[in-house]
Specification:
Strand order of the largest sheet: 17-16-13-14-15-12-18
Number of helices: 15
CATH superfamily of the largest domain: FAD/NAD(P)-binding domain
Shape: elongated
Structural class: alpha+beta
Number of strands: 20
């Protein structure tokens, strides 16, 4: 057992991603030298997934109106409302600027650091945490609790047991496990009688049964300027603009991620899901049909669609692929049928891509298990933050914003918990 200094509050933050780092910062700011805050991380360094998220430009958050922003969290929005209002996108921008990283709003409304990189922000953040007295215990893999409720870690020096006055768990979901978040915490938490919804892929690809001919010519091809739609289990239609990429297994891309929750629910309930594509969202169906009807008899369909409707070869290939799977040939369709196919192309999804390849994770600790500061009701003094909670959101800055906001909320919960008269003394 690691000895404790009875004069200090001992606070353990398990997980070195944005949620855990931010919880540690909030706690260290509040307690100063009267507490010892230690971040325990299973990997050799912290912030690995955070760094990977910034490879294409770090999308921190989004600039849209708050009510619309909040709606992106779906059924979890009411449970995240207080945390997000207490730390909204503008607060995250100000926090970045306090670390010397100015931000800007891109043309899509997404917010990025001007450097477009994660590493300068993370370096400045870790330096500030160390100045605040936060300690880092790396290569410490959490294995649960012992009989005295001490934290048990597997370390290079063997098993260590740590007593703490309060604990924040911020161990992430189960996506990108090579970076440290593998969902192994689920069984450990469930041992305490805590309800955890199944961990499922979010912001991930879906599988389709492509023909070999289509894959040979179109694998890796982008599909741009689309409007995607699907129905949820109640029959309501949801739609989103976006782009897709053809993969060996099926499709992936931002447009798909926005509808991922509804598609996943259909797959789990029915064994299949139907995605529908509007390949010409800027033209109505009547105009598409009119242009098709004007096609010269000798003109090839592919050439005509490319010139008249400005469809790219991958989109034309997708029309042909979908038609063949229906036992038809696009070139033999009447103008009205082809127009309908272009404006409402049905694609049958057969499954989800692996959670290991997903950007984020759905599922997690049920909100009914935690209080307003994300403390587990059944395990007082134990708080959770980030993707461990049962929420999901599309890409676009919503994922990081909620990780920061829930980390802050959990950190404030620790401060409040230990501030109670006589507690932790």
């Amino acid at each position: 057992m690691t000895p404790r200094d009875a004069t200090l509050k001992e606070i353990a933050v398990v997980g070195g991603g944005p949620a855990g780092l931010f919880a540690a910062e909030i706690i260290a700011q509040a307690f100063g030298v009267s507490a010892r805050v230690t971040i325990y991380e299973r990997m050799a360094s912290v912030g690995r997934k955070f760094l990977l998220a910034g490879r294409g430009g770090l999308n921190l958050t989004h600039s849209e109106a708050f009510d619309l922003f909040l709606s992106r969290y779906g059924s979890a929005a009411p449970r995240l409302d207080a945390a997000l209002r207490a730390f909204p996108p503008q607060a995250l921008r100000q926090w970045c600027e306090s670390l010397g990283e100015e931000t800007f709003v891109g043309s899509s409304g997404r917010i990025f650091p001007k450097s477009f990189k994660t590493s300068p922000l993370l370096r400045a953040w870790l330096a500030r945490l160390r100045e605040q007295g936060v300690r880092f215990a790396l290569r410490h893999e959490w294995r649960g609790f012992d009989g005295t409720k001490a934290l048990v870690f597997d370390t290079p020096d063997g098993i260590q047991r740590i007593e703490a006055d309060a604990v924040v768990l911020a161990l992430g979901g189960a996506s990108w496990p090579r970076l440290g978040s593998d969902g192994s915490w689920k069984a450990l938490v469930e041992q305490g009688g805590v309800e955890v919804a199944p961990l499922l892929p979010a912001n991930s690809g879906f599988t389709l049964a492509w023909s070999e001919h289509f894959l040979r010519s179109r694998e890796g091809a982008p599909l741009k300027n689309l409007r995607l739609s699907c129905r949820d289990l109640s029959g309501a239609v949801h739609s989103s603009p976006g782009e897709l990429t053809v993969t060996h297994q099926g499709l992936e891309g931002g447009g798909l991620y926005a509808l991922g929750r509804f598609l996943r629910e259909n797959l789990l309930a029915n064994g299949e899901a139907w995605l529908r594509l509007d390949l010409c969202p800027d033209l109505d169906r009547e105009e598409v049909e009119r242009r098709i009807a004007a096609r010269a008899v000798k003109q090839s369909l592919s050439t005509f669609l490319r010139k008249s409707l400005h469809l790219a070869p991958p989109a034309i290939g997708l029309i042909n692929e979908a038609s063949l799977q229906m036992g038809e040939k696009s070139a033999t369709l009447a103008p009205a049928e082809l127009a309908e196919r272009i404006k409402d192309l049905p694609l049958r999804l057969t499954g989800m891509a692996s959670i290991a390849d997903a950007i984020s994770t759905a599922g997690g600790i049920a909100f009914d298990e935690v209080d307003a500061f994300f403390m587990l009701r059944k395990l007082p003094g134990l708080f959770v933050a980030g993707e461990m909670l049962d929420w999901e959101a599309p890409t676009g800055g919503y994922l990081l914003q909620a990780c920061f906001a829930t980390g802050k909320r959990a950190g404030e919960g620790v401060v409040q918990w230990l501030g109670r008269e006589g507690h932790g003394q």
